[in-house]
Structure formats: structure tokens, C-alpha cells
Design brief:
OM_lipoprot_carrier_LolA-like; disordered N terminus; lipoprotein; 3 helices; 40% strand; 203 residues; mainly beta
């Protein structure tokens, strides 16, 4: 694996490491992802250059996600069910990717079978489960490494703590979550957006 998992776990998982770790069950991760219909959380994002941004994440399956950044940050990332959009209001530009062509696709498609694309990564901590996922048929989609902690009150018995996404250009982004809330009603209007390009009126 190309990612440095001790560094990742130190960033995302607070519990101290222990020597004896049970074998994590990939089906448990699949059950968690299938049990989450919606989620809201606060997030902290760190890019490969060390720049840190914060904001609020809203997710609704299938295919909808919104990264609403802190006040004063003129960018927005929205998945509207079909496409993932990167919107930069400071320069009036937008970029689009198919949902399935993004590392985030595994979080947004409840029907996705992880067995052919994901593997459990040993963490040394029985309370922490890490999974690395990439589509071997589509390396251009990048890869994502998800970190969970066991929590009986969370869907499927796991609480998503965050992830590291690595795109096809080797740009790494680390997301750490807090204040997670699962399966509360989320309106589809949360995934509407204003087009930043000139002479356009999409909302």
C-alpha cells in the first residue's frame, strides 16, 4: 500500500495502539456503509501541502454529498446524485467528474460490493478498522483509505472517523470527521448549488 497507515491512524484515531488486534471483517464495513442513508459531520481537511480547512459535510445516498467550507473560503464541492462538482467562486470556474470516477464513490453507492476493490489494513488496535479501496480496472479513479472505530451505537457497529483520498495525480487529501450524525432527514435542496461561471443561472 502506498499510504503511510501509522501516520494516517495517528491523525484520525485517538486510542492508543495495542499489540493484539483481531482480524477486521470487511463485511462489517460493507454493512456500515449500506446502513448509512445520510450523515452530517464537521470536517477538517488537510491537503498534501499541509493547508487545513474546516467545514460541514452533508451526505445522502445515493450519490449526494456536500462539503460546505468555513466562511471566507470561496470553494464548494457538491455531488448531486450523478456528478461531483468542484466549484471555485473566486475565479468563476467549475469542474465535473462522474460520481463513480471519484474515490468518494465508495461512500456514496450503497450497492457497491467492496470485495473486489477493498482490503482490510492491519492497525494494531482492536478498536480501529482501516480499509483501503481502489478499483483495479480503473486506476484513474484514485484510491481511498477509510478509518473507523468500533461503536455499538453507530450504524453497523462502526463510526467513520475519516479518510485519505489519493487521486490519479497523486494529490492526497486527509479528512477527519467529528460530531457525526447518521440517518437524520436531509433535504435534496442541500445539494443544489450556484454556478460560478459567467452568464449562467444554475442553482
Amino acid at each position: 500500500m502506498s499510504l503511510r497507515y501509522p501516520t494516517l491512524l495517528a491523525a484520525l484515531a485517538a486510542p492508543a495502539l495495542v499489540s493484539a488486534a483481531p482480524v477486521a471483517d470487511l463485511s462489517l464495513v460493507q454493512k456500515h456503509l449500506q446502513s448509512v442513508e445520510s450523515m452530517t459531520a464537521s470536517f477538517t481537511q488537510t491537503d498534501r501541502g499541509g493547508k487545513v480547512l474546516t467545514g460541514v459535510l452533508t451526505l445522502k445516498k445515493p450519490g449526494k454529498i456536500r462539503f460546505q467550507y468555513e466562511k471566507g473560503v470561496p470553494i464548494l464541492i457538491v455531488g448531486d446524485g450523478k456528478s461531483l462538482w468542484f466549484l471555485d467562486y473566486s475565479v468563476g470556474q467549475k469542474q465535473r467528474w462522474p460520481i463513480g470516477g471519484s474515490p468518494l464513490g465508495i461512500l456514496l453507492d450503497p450497492s457497491r460490493d467492496m470485495r473486489g476493490i477493498a482490503s482490510v489494513v492491519p492497525t494494531g488496535n482492536p478498536e480501529t478498522v482501516a480499509v483501503d479501496a481502489a478499483d483495479p480496472k480503473h486506476p484513474e479513479y484514485g484510491r481511498i483509505s477509510l478509518v473507523f472505530v468500533r461503536n455499538a451505537t453507530a450504524p453497523g457497529g462502526l463510526m467513520l472517523q475519516g479518510w485519505v483520498a489519493l487521486d490519479s495525480q497523486n494529490n492526497r487529501t486527509t479528512i477527519r470527521l467529528s460530531n457525526q450524525r447518521f440517518n437524520a432527514p436531509v433535504s435534496n435542496s442541500a445539494f443544489q448549488w450556484r454556478d460560478p461561471t459567467p452568464a449562467s443561472g444554475r442553482k
